[in-house]
């Protein structure tokens, strides 16, 4: 079954090719081999303002580039989010992107005076891929993957996206075989559209 997949590449540096880019390319290669339709949003290449107030979030009309991202996400069956762990969380630019994109009217809609929220992105699944310098088990067990859980619960599930799978890739500065293993794994995940 052909899936429509969108990759959200969350590394904020456009000056260099990073491991997260290699992971996205490997996933894309596998998805194409699997017969899936795939697009990529590279957040670092987008120009958009920060939201600074309640009114900005709830009432301001999204700019054209954000509307295009919303259209691409709306069209997708599966969302792949790739980012490096910075200071225990996602980079600020990626968070600002999510604030711009996942807004009322697109991702969710308050009903009954805001007491209940209608989830507008039901039927989509996601995979979150996080790279980090520390061992992944430390992030998961010692730090309890708090920022990852926040993304899953407070953004994706709140909008109706599920199931959500995760791939935590630790020690990315280490053994080249370890990095190659994950690139091969991304090809496989892309082929299966997972």
What does this structure look like?
- It contains seven helices and seven strands.
- With 194 residues, it is an alpha/beta fold.
- The strands form two sheets. It has a five-stranded parallel beta sheet with strand order 2-1-3-6-7, with helices on both faces.
- Helix 1 packs parallel to helix 7 (176-192).
- The protein is globular and about 55 Å long.
- The model has no long low-confidence stretch (mean pLDDT 94).
List the helices and strands and how they pair.
Blueprint: E1 4-9, H1 19-33, E2 37-42, H2 54-59, H3 64-75, E3 78-84, H4 92-101, E4 108-111, E5 116-119, E6 125-131, H5 136-142, H6 146-156, E7 164-169, H7 176-192
Parallel strand pairs: 1-2, 1-3, 3-6, 6-7
Antiparallel strand pairs: 4-5
User: Percent range for helical residues?
Assistant: 40-55%
CATH topology: Rossmann fold
CATH class: Alpha Beta
The sequence of SSEs as H and E is: EHEHHEHEEEHHEH
Average pLDDT: 94
Strand content: 15-25%
Shape: globular
Separation, N- and C-terminal Cα atoms: 12 Å
Major sheet: 5 strands, parallel
CATH architectural type: 3-Layer(aba) Sandwich
Number of structural domains: 1
Question: Helix/strand/pairing class, anyone?
Answer: alpha/beta
Residue runs with pLDDT of under 50 for 5 or more positions: none
Number of strands: 7
Count of DSSP-assigned helices: 7
CATH H level, superfamily name: Flavodoxin domain
Rg over C-alpha atoms, rounded to the nearest angstrom: 17 Å
